[in-house]
Amino acid sequence: MIVKPQKPLHWAIVGGGMLGLTLAHRMSAQGHHVSLIEAGDQLGGLTSVWELGSVTWEKHYHVILLSDSRLRNLLQEVQLEDQLKWVETKTGFFTDGQMYSMSDTKEFLTFPPLKFIEKIRLGGTIFYASKIRNWKRLEKIPVTKWLKRWSGKGTFEKIWMPLLRAKLGDAYEVTSASFIWAAISRMYKARRSGLKKEMFGYVRGGYRTIIQRMASILSERNVPVLTGHAIRRVQKNADGKFTIDFADQPSQEFDRVIMTTPSTVIEKACVDLTDDERSRLGSTQYLGIVNASMLVDKPVSPYYVTNITDGWVPMTAVIEMSNIVDREETDQKSLIYLPKYVPAGDPLFEKSDEEIRESFLTAMEKMHPEFSRDDVSAFRIARARNVMAIPTLEYSKSLPEQTSSVPGLYLVNSAYITKGNLNVNETIQIAEDAMDGCLKAELANHKVGVATR
Ligand SMILES: Cc1cc2nc3c(=O)[nH]c(=O)nc-3n(C[C@H](O)[C@H](O)[C@H](O)COP(=O)(O)OP(=O)(O)OC[C@H]3O[C@@H](n4cnc5c(N)ncnc54)[C@H](O)[C@@H]3O)c2cc1C
To answer: How do the domains of the chain map onto residue ranges?
Structure first.
């Protein structure tokens, strides 16, 4: 009997962020016929770059942790591991109008805002969280309740509460304890080795280098990359294929579709999903960000991150990227980000650039007496509404199946990160798990040749 080889499928991967890029890279490496579809005019999504004065860098700050093994494997695959640079960093805390260094155990033990017993409870909470393996039970407990239980009222009010508010806005009230567990686990892993010093890394040239390298590999493999293609509708036809309609481009047909965009986009575009699937997608609560970047003539602090617990400061933190990234990369200037995390519907998104700039720079001048807005040579504001799905109570149960009710339509976005906080390493894991899970059978059934690179 002659077995007829299965006809190769044409896969649409919707969303050209790190998730879609990883899928396109890995699937094309196995010889699958994929097209990568991206609404923006460049690839990268949240890791994409822009020009800030004389410097081209990410709209949102990114660092790599020593423990980001999946990301490091990917960098090795695309031959960029040797471009990684590791730097020891310091952390600051701005609390009660004062700046403190909180970069090692000694500084932690002498941190004045907390009494000795409060420090013990804070350290104990972090240590205990780092040992928890059964994170699913934390999904049932509000983060506020869990932190009060383990850290006590004083530490909660002085440290955790302001940090939660800064990081999640009012959404902290509906967030489960798995959020803080995931954040602590990631930071704990980052400091696990050696002297518990914090080491962060970046690839020379930043994510621009990574995205460009991945795009050039896709191009060598003749993978169509359709930037400027914002999808409007994904519909299954009677012949089993999918038609994708775009906002400003002619429609195209594909055999299979993988959606990596935010759940809110999937809910609106994928019209064949059941009411239950669409309601699950539509009820995902997203955390957004209003993120200013600026180039300053002089360094502002020795810290990579300055956490802020004083409620009057309009930013969540100060991120001085130049304490990691070599100044040669940033025209000898200090590259600083001033992020404010807010829920996707927050009125801050409607404020003008001028209003935001004024409030952020005024706060910087109060926090750092040596800082002057006269030293700022470039200032831009990035806004992203759908950054991270908020892990609400029993969040993992609220997600629809990744193999959707529509045969051939798969849901593989970052909202499926259930036991971690949003970061590129977790994002890559979602892509890898999908290829080993929901996509596995179809990829095996339609096996094809392996690409040369
Ligand atoms: C301020 C900030 C700091 C961060 N810091 C770090 C860090 O230090 N380290 C770290 O590892 N990670 C960090 N991250 C997280 C990291 O950026 C994300 O994990 C990762 O970029 C997510 O990739 P993604 O592909 O899932 O999503 P996205 O990057 O959001 O990609 C989704 C893509 O879908 C596209 N899209 C949306 N709608 C449509 C449509 N209708 N049609 C076609 N395309 C569409 C979007 O344009 C986008 O390109 C940070 C994120 C932010 C915002």
So the answer is: 10-62+206-284+392-445, 105-196
Provide, rounded to the nearest whole percent, the portion of the chain with pLDDT above 90: 79
Q: Is the minimum distance from the CB of 37 to ligand 1 under 6 angstroms? A: yes
Maximum separation of any 2 CA atoms in the chain, in Å: 82
- Asked whether the CA dihedral 361, 365, 367, 368 is positive or negative, the reply is positive
Residues facing residue 200 across a β-bridge: 65, 87
Q: What is the value of pTM for the model shown?
A: 0.94
Q: What is the token pair recorded at 209?
A: 């280098």
What number of other Cβ atoms are within 10 A of residue 375's Cβ? 15
Q: 93, exposed or middle or buried, with CB in 10 Å at 0-12, 13-18, 19+?
A: buried
Pocket test for ligand 1, best of 25, 62, 66 (most atoms within 8 A of CB): 62
Query: Each residue of 88-142: pLDDT tens digit?
Result: 999 999 999 999 998 887 788 888 888 989 989 988 998 899 888 888 899 999 9
- Cβ atoms within 10 Å of 345's Cβ, excluding its own: 10
Q: What is the CATH number of domain 10-62+206-284+392-445?
A: 3.50.50.60
- What CA–CA distance (Å, rounded) separates 240 from 9? 12
